[in-house]
Amino acid sequence: MLQFKFLGILMGVAIRTKKPLDLHLAPLVWKQLCCIPLLLEDLEEVDLLYVQTLKSILHIEDSGITEDNFHEMIPLDSFVGQSADGKMVPIIPGGNSIPLTFSNRKEYVERAIEYRLHEIDRQVAAVREGMSWIVPVPLLSLLTAKQLEQMVCGMPEICCDVLKKVVRYREVDEQHSLVQWFWQTLEEFSNEERVLFMRFVSGRSRLPANTADISQRFQIMKVDRHRFSFLLVVY
């Protein structure tokens, strides 16, 4: 829990300083951080196969399964289900001793979905507690999950148009052929290659969602060495 709290502190610092973190969290985590109620569709985004399995159990009669042959087709015999890390765990207290039958399969599916949707409530609460040390977390409920993710993580795509807005030129004009070649090459890069470029010149792999929040601007300068001219890109 202390590590999750520390993660929350880092996320709060990222918001305050406008220095994005390269985090890859499931969409439902961002929704929980914003106190947005989770839906079955949120679970489908991260574990579609498990949701389909639960739905097949709920409507198993459509496949011709009856109470007589239920246990021959369903390998589960109690109220246990798959957790996010793939382990089989009780989905309710004492679930190991509660038999799963044809008649209570609806309750089983409801409990299994409820368990998965709230499986990480304690961890999310710890992250929010860490964030509360840096930012006013009650205001997070005013944001959408996407907005919060962008505030913490910035934009995953490194766009050349954005870079052109924050670049500074030293001893070289932006119309110079070397500069034109530079931008042409950068535009031909894949996003992964542009991320590597950003890491090389700035040590960061994400840009703030708002261009105005980019405080550090990289510079392009011309360097002449022994009849050759080249560009030097620095922060």
UniProtKB/TrEMBL annotation:
Report the GO molecular function annotations.
ubiquitin-protein transferase activity
Keyword Transferase applies: yes
- Would the keyword Transferase turn up in this protein's UniProt record? yes
> Which InterPro entries does this UniProt record tie to the protein?
HECT_dom (IPR000569), Hect_E3_ubiquitin_ligase (IPR035983), HECTD3 (IPR042469)
Q: Quick one: a GO cellular component term?
A: cytoplasm
Q: Record's SUPFAM superfamilies? A: Hect, E3 ligase catalytic domain
HECT domain mapped to chain residues:
1-210
- Please list every transmembrane segment annotated in the UniProt record, as residue ranges: none
Q: Which UniProt keywords apply?
A: Transferase, Ubl conjugation pathway
Which Pfam families does this entry report, sorted A to Z? HECT
Q: Which PANTHER family match?
A: E3 UBIQUITIN-PROTEIN LIGASE HECTD3 (PTHR46654:SF1)
Its protein name is HECT domain-containing protein
Source organism: Seriola lalandi dorsalis
